[in-house]
Amino acid sequence: MRHLMSPLDFTTEELEQLMDLADDMRLHPEQYADACHGKKLATCFYEPSTRTRLSFEAAMLNLGGSVLGFSSADSSSAAKGESVSDTIRVISSYADICAMRHPKEGAPLVASSHSRIPVINAGDGGHQHPTQTLTDLYTIRSLNGSIGNLTIGLCGDLKFGRTVHSLINALVRYPNIKFILISPEELRIPEYIREDVLDRNEIPYVEMERLEDAMPQLDILYMTRVQRERFFNEEDYLRMKDFYILNSEKMTLAKDNMMVLHPLPRVNEISVEVDDDPRAAYFKQAQYGVYIRMALIYTLLEVQPC
Amino acid sequence: MLNISGIHEGFVLDHIKAGMSMKIYHDLHLDQFDCTVAIIMNAKSNKMGTKDIIKVECPIDALDLDILGYIDHNITVNVIQGDVIVDKKVLTLPRKIKNVISCKNPRCITSIEQELDQIFVLTDEEREIYRCKYCEEKFQKQS
Description:
By secondary structure, chain A is α/β, with parallel strands linked by helices. Helices cover 37% and strands 15% of the residues of chain A. Chain A folds into two domains: 7-128 and 289-300, Aspartate/ornithine carbamoyltransferase (Rossmann fold, 3-Layer(aba) Sandwich); 131-286, Rossmann fold. Chain A has helices at residues 12-27, 50-62, 84-94, 107-112, 130-144, 162-171, 191-199, 211-214, 234-240, 248-251, 282-300; strands at residues 40-45, 66-70, 97-102, 119-124, 150-155, 177-182, 205-208, 220-223, 259-261. In chain A, α2 packs across α11 and α5 packs across α6 (162-171). Chain B folds into two domains: 9-89, Alpha-Beta Plaits; 96-140, Aspartate carbamoyltransferase regulatory subunit, C-terminal domain (SH3 type barrels, Roll), CATH 2.30.30. At the A-B interface, α4 of A face loops of B.
C-alpha cells in the first residue's frame, strides 16, 4: 500500500506512468467510468478548500466511485479533540482511500502511519501540496509535450508560497531546467530552497525584481499572489505591487508559445483581460488537475485494468 | 582524590564536556534503569582541562548509544566486559533521533498532538542538519 505525502514520493519514471494514465483517462473517459465502482473516497478536510476538495471528488466520481467526508474541522470529531491517528483508524473502516487537508504540517504523514487505506496529502499548512505539483507537471507535459529544456519564471510570493517550493523541488529532476525568480526582495526564495535544492543540483537561476524584464526569456510563467500583509511597509508595497500584475501589455513581451500557469484562486495578479489570450493556461490547469487526481486514485487503489 | 571503583560489565563514557553529564544522564534515560550509575563531574583532563565521566554498570546491550553521537561525537565510549575494556565505540551522527529535541514550528502537528514522538532525521551530515520528520523544520546542531 502506498501513500502520497510529497511530490518526490514518485520517481520521474513513476510520474511518467501516472501522466500516461491521466492522458488515457482524458482521451478515453468512458473506459474508466466504472473503474472504481464500489470504492469510496473520504475527503477529510480540516480546513476549507473548495477547489481541491471538489477536484478530488470530481476525480472519484469520474471513476464511478463515491465520496464521503467533511470540509472543516468544526464539522469533524477534531472539534471534540480526537487525534488524527484515531480519526484515520475509523475512516479506514468506512472508505477505501482518503484525501486529507490539515492546517498542521505533517498531519497527513501521521495519518498514513496509522491508516489501513492509502492517504493522499491534499495540503498540510505551508508544507506540501503534492497533488498541486502533480497538476502543474502534468499541465506542463500536456501543453509542452515534455518536461525539460525549459526556462520557467516563478513570479510573486516566492518566500511563503508552498506551491512554488514543491514545484522547484519536482522540476530540478528534469533535464535543462532554468529558473527566473521574480519577486520583491522581501519575498525571495528561502535560503534552504536556494542552497539545498538549486545550488546542490547545480540548477541555473537568476533573481529579478521586475516581471517585464523576465518576460521575453520565459517558456512558462508561473504566477502567484503577492499579499499586502507580506510587506514590511506600505511604501514598498505601493512601489512594487504593479510589478507583479500580469496584464495584456506585459504579455506582448512574451514568446508566442509561452504558457501562463497559476495554482488559483487568482485575485488580481492576473488581469481578466489575459484570460482570452491563448497562452493563458490556468483554467486548463484546473481541468488537468482532475485527470491527474483520477490517475492517482486509480493507481493508489491498485485498480486492475478492465 | 575521589575514587570510584571499576565496573564488571557496562560502559564508561569518557571525555564528556564538563557540565554535560547530567544532560546525557537524562537523554540516555539512565534515570529509568535499575543499574548503578556514577557521574564524575569536573575531573581533571590533560586533553580538555576538565571533563565529565559517566560509568554505567549494566548489560552491554541495554543502552541505545546513538544519541551520544548527536550530543558530542568526541565522547569516548569504552565497553567493559569481565572488568576489562573489550571495545571502544566510534561515534557518528545518528540517522534519526527520537524524543531528544523538540520541533519549534508552531504549525507542526506535534504542536497540538503532544503524544507523538519527536522524531528528527539527519538530512545533511556535513552541516549537521536535522529536520523534523513531520514538518521538515530545520534543526541545526550547535557545536
